[in-house]
Write a structure and sequence with these properties.
193 residues, alpha+beta, three-stranded antiparallel sheet, 56% helix
Length: 193
């Protein structure tokens, strides 16, 4: 048996106790982080003084010490749990994000590798593309010719506008002569500036 002392218990009040020789134990656990646990084993060896007695000093000491000890232990425990949760969750999140990203990258790579290249366009498709382009170029020429023709019809055209009108009309004639069946070997006429 060790020496006797006074233990202020939150509900039992003041107790005279003795700490046994193996009464203080410490255990450490790495399973859920670095956790140290202390166990204090005491044997009651004297009279009990309850906090509900007339001893004001004892009641005050029990109330203050119990609340301070409880609050301190609770704050340390909450802080420890938060730290453990934060480190575990961050580790899990990062690992899950990496695994998910690797999985998606693998799926996309395999999908891209599995897709055969598109076949070359058929002669019909090449002709359709050429006809579409020809229509677009004719529309552009029509708009330009309409603008210059308005200036000529209203007797407002400058020499540059008259020259541009002639150039765009020649371009439109050459464009109409393009045979889209010869696609992709088409020599498109040069657009006027």
């Amino acid at each position: 048996m060790g020496s006797t002392g006074t233990l202020v218990h939150p509900t039992l009040g003041e107790l005279t106790v003795s700490v046994t020789e193996s009464g203080l134990r410490m255990t450490e656990s790495a399973e859920s982080g670095r956790v140290f646990e202390f166990t204090l084993t005491v044997i009651e060896s004297g009279l009990k003084f309850f906090a509900v007695t007339n001893s004001t000093k004892s009641a005050t000491a029990v109330g203050q010490n119990w609340l301070r000890t409880y609050t301190t232990m609770l704050a340390k425990y909450v802080s420890m749990v938060r730290g453990e949760i934060r480190s575990v969750v961050q580790g899990i999140r990062i690992r899950i994000i990496r695994q998910t990203a690797d999985q998606w990258i693998g799926m996309v790579t395999r999908s891209v590798d599995d897709v055969p290249p598109p076949p070359p366009p058929t002669p019909e498709e090449l002709q359709q593309q050429a006809e579409y382009e020809k229509r677009q170029l004719l529309d552009t020429a029509r708009v330009k010719i309409d603008i210059y023709q308005d200036a000529v019809d209203l007797d407002m055209a400058t020499d540059a506008e008259k020259s541009a009108l002639t150039a765009w009309r020649k371009y439109r004639v050459l464009l109409n002569r393009v045979d889209c069946a010869t696609a992709p070997d088409i020599q498109w006429p040069e657009q006027p500036k």
